[in-house]
Design a protein that fits this description.
about 80% helix, elongated, mainly alpha, about 725 residues
């Protein structure tokens, strides 16, 4: 019992390590954010603004313990969203000055529209649309009692946000030295680490290491996160050419490298015991990869490495050519066993050659991204995929929550109703940035409650004794400093940011004195009720369920396969676009499984994700084969049958029988193509048939081994 208590105490103490032993970056973040808060408060009080607390609140909205590029991007889009919201607020008030129902419905529609757009955008562009929604609501509900003051209120609130954003950015810039070169170095370090991890995974897969295959999806997930951060590095490296485009190309190539290596490991597992002389090249390739890792660690030029890589690629190509020509006319060329093994050799050599070709692209793009002075016209981007179902749900949630809030205000006539609605709009708009809106609501509600309690303590006991700004600043170090340190902890970030924001509001900094008790309690009730109302609304309208979201994402992946199998070659996505689409869906799935202790379920999802990725890439290859003129029509008909079976396998009809028939059709196609490859005289057709067999092996294996993931129950 004593040991358990000791262990519990140690665990509890460790959970507060962020407070008593914070990291250096957290201390710097807290220090600069406090300075920015003090600067804007002094300016706002000196200029005798009507509500200085909005200026310091703006600092905590934009504050973020992250790279400088993220802070710059966040500040930019907050300003854009603020200006947009102000313009729309003036238009709404001018259009419906005496029509309260139309006014309230229009505000709800505007916030819902902002939620919809933000759900279909990425990074801080989404936050910009969120800002456009709730800045408009704040201006409108602050001036709803006197529409003639709307313009002045818009200018006032807009000035506060501008002042807070500019002060925070100016303070943060004081801590950034030589930003361009540091950002370029950080980006190159991240890219090199991704490339090294990819090469290590490939090296393990050459040995048939199943664990490396299983872990490759984790690297793909980290690549997605790094790819999203390139936008922020580009802001830091402004004026340095197309480094960001080359960095995206590197990450896309690493993703392709992992997928092709996974396919190679499947080929190796299926046919490695039925080959002629393939295994001799595996040690050569592994030796080369080890040398490559050593050169990358030393930062050596990649020119000599690329020469050795091309030699390996040509060796694979020569072996493929030899298998066609070397033994023509010899007695063993007509032997069925020899022919089968020769075909298996060609499949493995071609698969390895594709890996080496992708590695060549990766190293060349990495070399270009390292060149700080490179100015070219290279462009590289992948079209993002949008979750319109989630966007519509966020919009509908926000609309009904705000509409019901307005109805409650109309019924009760509460004098703090406009404040309650302003914060309700703010919460509803911010919640759409999160996949789990209910969890975001809880964070918002907890942060607001903590702010009310701490704000009440300061307002009733501390503020009456404050007589000058210096003393106020000293007393503010503890509550805001703790909030800043907590914002650096991912599990506390949402609660801490809400707490810091509302604490500044509850304290109500002003030249004329502190907030009186009645006003404080009324404001506290408005803040509390906005959190309760938002939480209740998000529980009622499309409540979050992890299991249902996982099922929807699986259906989305299967429908993607369905559309790939039905599409013509002209409308097919690029392989890297498909990899990006599946990887993004997988990141969402894994976030739902972070707290799940069912390791078999997590393993099923991880392998299922990689299976969908492999099937999709090989469907794209087969579609191109069908639409080209090299193959004869009878071969194309077999491929069309396979594609048609997969197109029927779209998730809604993914029961046992359709799945089993799809696997069976793929296996039969492989058998028929092996016979055809043995008897075919046209060399070009034989090459295409070999490629088709290679793709069908991967498709059949992925379908067969991931049945539990691919069969989605209704």
């Amino acid at each position: 019992m004593w040991a358990k208590r000791m262990a519990f105490g140690q665990t509890t103490l460790k959970s507060f390590q962020w407070l008593y032993a914070p990291q250096k970056t957290a201390i710097i973040f807290a220090f600069r954010t406090l300075i920015a808060s003090y600067v804007v408060l002094v300016i706002a009080l000196w200029m005798e603004m009507d509500s200085p607390r909005w200026a310091i609140m703006a600092v905590w909205i934009v504050a973020q313990n992250s790279s400088r590029g993220e802070v710059l991007s966040k500040a930019y889009w907050i300003i854009v969203g603020n200006i947009t919201g102000i313009i729309v607020s003036l238009w709404i008030m001018a259009s419906f000055p005496q029509q309260p129902i139309l006014f309230e419905v229009t505000v709800a529609l505007w916030v819902a529209l902002c939620c919809w757009v933000s759900s279909c955008t990425r990074n801080f562009r989404a936050l910009g649309m969120v800002m456009a929604g709730y800045s408009c609501a704040i201006v409108l509900f602050s001036s709803v009692g006197n529409p003639n003051e709307t313009f002045m209120m818009a200018m006032s609130r807009g000035s506060y946000f501008m002042l807070g954003v500019l002060a925070e950015n100016f303070t943060a810039r004081l801590f950034d030295l030589n930003l361009h070169h540091q950002a370029h170095k950080k980006l190159n370090d991240d890219l090199q680490k991704a490339v090294e991890e990819g090469i290590k995974s490939v090296s393990k897969m050459l040995d048939g290491d199943d664990w490396a295959v299983a872990q490759s999806d984790q690297l793909l997930s980290s690549i997605i996160g790094l790819n999203n951060n390139i936008e922020f590095r580009e802001r830091e490296m402004k004026g340095t050419g197309h480094t960001g485009a080359h960095a995206r190309a590197v990450l896309a190539s690493v993703s392709g490298l992992l997928v092709k290596a996974t396919g190679f490991s499947i080929h190796l597992k299926q046919i490695q015991k039925d080959v002629l002389n393939f295994h001799y090249i595996v040690p050569l390739t592994k030796s080369y990869l080890l040398q490559l890792l050593d050169q990358l660690n030393k930062g050596a030029p990649l020119s000599e490495t690329l020469i050795a890589l091309n030699a390996l690629r040509w060796e694979c190509r020569q072996r493929i050519a030899d298998s066609f020509y070397k033994n023509l006319g010899s007695p063993q060329a007509t032997n069925e066993d020899y022919t089968r093994k020769s075909l298996n050799d060609r499949i493995l050599y071609q698969s390895l050659r594709e890996i080496l070709a992708e590695l060549d692209v990766t190293l060349r793009e990495l070399s270009k991204s390292r060149d700080f002075n490179l100015y070219d016209k290279f462009k590289f981007d992948i079209k993002p995929s949008f979750d319109f179902r989630r966007a519509w749900r966020n919009a509908i949630r926000a609309f009904f929550a705000i509409t019901l809030g307005c109805l409650a205000w109309e019924i009760t006539g509460w004098d703090r109703g406009p404040l309650f609605l302003a914060f309700l709009c703010m919460g509803c708009a911010r919640f759409c940035l999160f996949e789990n809106a209910t969890l975001a609501c809880w964070g918002w509600f907890k942060g607001a409650c903590i702010a009310i309690i701490v704000g009440g303590f300061y307002n009733f006991l501390i503020m009456p004794a404050v007589s000058n700004l210096n003393l106020l600043f000293i007393l503010m170090i503890v509550p805001l400093g703790i909030g800043a340190l907590a914002m650096c902890v991912p599990r506390l970030a949402s609660i801490a940011s809400t707490y810091a924001f509302f604490f500044c509001y509850m304290l109500g900094f002003a030249n004329e004195g502190r907030v009186d008790e009645i006003s404080f309690l009324n404001n506290a009730l408005a803040v509390f009720m906005s959190g309760v109302f938002a939480l209740a609304s998000y529980r009622l309208f499309f409540p979050y369920r992890s299991r249902r979201l996982r099922r929807q994402m699986r259906m989305k992946l299967l429908q993607g396969l369905h559309h790939l199998a039905q599409s013509s070659s002209s409308s097919l996505p690029l392989a890297r676009e498909w990899v990006g689409f599946v990887s993004e869906a997988f990141v969402v799935l894994m976030r739902q499984l972070n707290e799940d202790r069912n390791t078999s379920l997590v393993k099923s999802y991880r392998h299922g994700n990689m299976a969908v990725m492999l099937i999709g890439i090989n469907i794209i290859r087969l579609r191109h084969m069908v639409d080209h003129d090299i193959m004869t029509e009878d071969i194309k008909d077999i491929l069309r049958v396979v594609l048609r079976r997969i197109s029927m396998f779209d998730g809604r009809k993914a029961g046992y029988a359709p799945h089993a028939r799809t696997v069976m059709v793929a296996h039969r196609a492989i058998a028929r193509f092996r016979q055809r490859e043995f008897s075919e005289k046209n060399l070009a057709v034989r090459i295409e048939v070999s490629a088709a067999i290679s793709s069908l092996i991967l498709i059949s294996y992925a379908l067969d081994k991931n049945a539990s993931f691919l069969r989605v129950k209704k």
